[in-house]
């Protein structure tokens, strides 16, 4: 039996009744389509709003918090950094190249809508095991899409991460973070005065049928076995048009020609116009005849909900229109006046002289349903009881080391980031492959340190700790290069929120993120929620991904991870505990994802960050590297490989060798210092209450781990670098 129209569009019976109540009548097809996209999970946050409201969003540096196209923070010198992260996972599961490419394009336009020039991209990605053909196809397609789009628009892809886990075989996670910069007093925010009578100018590509229903058909439902039938809902990107759009919009903002600027991404024209009108507390008259179309015969609902890419909605006073059109013409872009902001609150849509829709703008943009969904924890007892920390380990230390170093989650991702242009624009000081990317702020000595982290395996075992660890590690990643962590964005990737255990995981993750952000002084400036990442009986692990922004006052004092010369003294800052739950060693060597994640003392974490930042400012460190995935053994090996210099170390603590080498205890970093500065480092750590252990010193072509084993730097590099190319057959 054919289902009612509202259900086919993703609206529930109760939501239909709510729409009828707001309109005082039966909605027509076009109006139902508008509500279906704006009240979708992707646009309305109807299942997550009540939890997201608990996050810390204010701070001395925060200029713009959640609720606008992107967040913004003050970095001094009259400059603001604008940044945000979003998901394009569902489209990427169907068309990996276009899904990833348009994810890049969309997040760039979010930053552009704030009047900021995009200066960096980061891409946290998660796939199923590369032993499966489909996962290899998804992996290669997504990486190609990111590189193909980002390289063409001239925005460097400077970082991110790639992880692999079986739950991502049917549901890859494709998150994209963009960072931009603008004069703080020129940001395009909702605080700007917008007047009735101002014109709505659609700039950029023509509107077609690609992407229709993207936010409701794809992003707000689970993917089923026939997901290929949703291919028309995947947008098609044109990076060369995006580059022109970037430059034209920045010129319009710089010349003060606009009252507002809005990306046309999810929900297309409906979203951009309703949000613009609602923020201005006005109504709008929208004329669909004026919308440039890619093909004839589009129905009104198709024009209203198309997610065709490379489009922006500008708001301009009538007396500025000629200048706006001239700028767009000079950049080779279409620009059409498609409507007007009017007094009142109604958004009326006209086509061919007929009103085809008339709804309150606020009801679309701000009055979607809010659900307090049922929550209940999944059964953790059995999986937590199987703590790998107490298992008998029969593997030889050297074999265990090479297995962990060569596991896909730990091994080098050079194959990925060599496909990205990370040097374009000339501001990249440190690119992909390290703890954090570092990008100079032009005209100053300052630099931004950028890192992403998502601890899905930890989230599976304890969603609260998983989220808190993601914040802590992302902050640690910027601290080890010498930057002060100052704010985060996020993308919260979860399964179906209609399942009580998923909502419990989500609520616990938000609680963990909130506690960690408060403790570390990194307010949340915005982000994205990506639900319904599941298919059939396969759902992803709870995976909140954190995008961390750090600030270095003088980029010449940044610290890199490599052991670049012999004779440096190696220290471990922090302590190692018997904690193998959720570790790479437990999964790769013992075949277990079980136990509890490591404990996390947020005060100790913050103290470690202070030591790392102060040590960098005082120029004490020759090398510094986060100790996390793979534990101390991997951290030391990565330092040796990066600097092409070996070491000899003794293992600290009275714990078994496999704990000392592979435990992923929090709040630790490996540092190397010249001998004449070692006492200063020890005194600094003591002053902040951070435990330290002297491990050994750098030198020679071999990595010597106590009396346990040794391996040459070249052999370790071979294992580390060849894993990913080997798995994809290159």
How are the strands ordered across the major sheet?
8-10-7-11-9-12-13
**Which class of the domain at 1-39 and 190-366 in CATH terms?**
Alpha Beta
- Give the end-to-end Cα distance, rounded to a whole number of Å: 50 Å
Strand content: 15-25%
The proportion of residues forming helix, as a percent range, comes to 25-40%
The chain-level mean pLDDT equals 94
| Counted beta strands | 28
What composes the largest sheet? 7 strands, mixed
Radius of gyration: 26 Å
- What would CATH call the homologous superfamily of the domain at 1-39 and 190-366? PurM-like C-terminal domain
Count every helix, treating DSSP H or I runs of 4 or more residues as helices: 26
Q: What is the level-2 CATH architecture name of the domain at 1-39 and 190-366?
A: Alpha-Beta Complex
The dominant shape is globular
Descriptive terms for the model:
single chain; 730 residues; alpha+beta; Phosphoribosyl-aminoimidazole Synthetase, Chain A, domain 2; seven-stranded mixed sheet; globular
Characterize the structure shown.
The chain has 730 residues and is an alpha+beta fold. The chain has a domain at 1-39 and 190-366: Phosphoribosyl-aminoimidazole Synthetase, Chain A, domain 2. It is 35% helix and 23% strand. It is built from 26 helices and 28 strands. It has a 7-stranded mixed beta sheet. Strands 23-25-22-26-24-27-28 form a 7-stranded mixed beta sheet. A hairpin with a 2-residue loop joins strand 2 and strand 3. Helix 8 (133-153) runs parallel beside helix 10 (239-254). The longest helix is centred in the N-terminal third of the chain and has 21 residues, at 133-153. The chain is globular, with a radius of gyration of 26 Å. The two termini are 50 Å apart. The mean pLDDT is 94.
